[in-house]
Inverse folding.
């Protein structure tokens, strides 16, 4: 099973600033990584697939990148609605696995 | 509008069974990979199961193999999760989700999610 490790567990950032969230895969996942945003009481929302392709309707301030088995979600200028929990997921191998999540909170 | 609506959750005793349903609208379930993802209270997301378009392939997380069965009904445009021999650790919100498709290529991420249905396993 591929383990996805997210860091940090909690990230405190001020509105308007940049947020950088990390996710490390325990082995190669061939760019098959997605990022999701989840707000309290809501279902997850797909942000990024293929490590860097924004989903339909996702603002350009969200971007994804990769370097080997390290994946990064960057939010360039935080808006109030961006404070939520973010999950990465690999879908290269069964079972599909999620990271444990990063909570992005207002500083 | 593309939508998924789950139902069938509830309180069940350990060892019991439940059948979750997921009604789709705005698209045809039989043309997409579909899956179930769960989230225990206060915890992260856990992928549970997937089924392909014609139902010939199913995949499960190890902890539910032999106890859960994923299936689809083309006539009702719905997805199901039959859960048997339920355990306390199966307590979670269960989400139905659609596999992302770009053109005719299925991408393994989930692009449409239902609102979830709560399953509680307790005596």
């Amino acid at each position: 099973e591929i383990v996805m490790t997210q860091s940090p567990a909690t990230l405190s950032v001020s509105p308007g600033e940049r947020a950088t969230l990390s996710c490390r895969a325990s082995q190669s996942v061939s760019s098959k990584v997605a990022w999701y945003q989840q707000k309290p009481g809501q279902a997850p929302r797909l942000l990024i697939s293929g490590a860097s392709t924004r989903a339909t309707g996702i603002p350009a301030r969200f971007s994804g990148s990769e370097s080997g088995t390290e994946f990064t979600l960057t939010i360039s200028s935080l808006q109030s609605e961006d404070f939520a929990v973010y999950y990465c997921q690999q879908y290269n191998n069964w079972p599909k696995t999620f990271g444990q999540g990063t909570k992005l909170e207002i500083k | 509008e593309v939508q998924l609506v789950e139902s069938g959750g509830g309180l069940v005793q350990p060892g019991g069974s439940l059948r979750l349903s997921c009604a789709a609208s705005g698209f045809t379930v039989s043309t997409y990979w579909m899956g179930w993802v769960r989230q225990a209270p206060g915890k992260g997301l856990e992928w549970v199961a997937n089924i392909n378009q014609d139902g010939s392939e199913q995949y499960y997380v190890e902890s539910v193999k032999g106890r859960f069965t994923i299936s689809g009904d083309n006539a009702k445009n719905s997805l199901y999760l039959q859960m048997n021999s339920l355990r306390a650790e199966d307590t979670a919100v269960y989400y139905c989700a659609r596999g992302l498709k770009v053109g005719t290529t299925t991408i393994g991420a989930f692009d449409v999610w239902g609102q979830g249905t709560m399953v509680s396993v307790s005596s």
Observations:
- The interface with chain B takes residues 1, 32, 34, 36, 38, 42-46, 49-50, 55-56, 87, 89, 91-92, 94-101 of chain A (CB under 8 Å).
- The first strand of chain A starts at residue 4 and ends at 7.
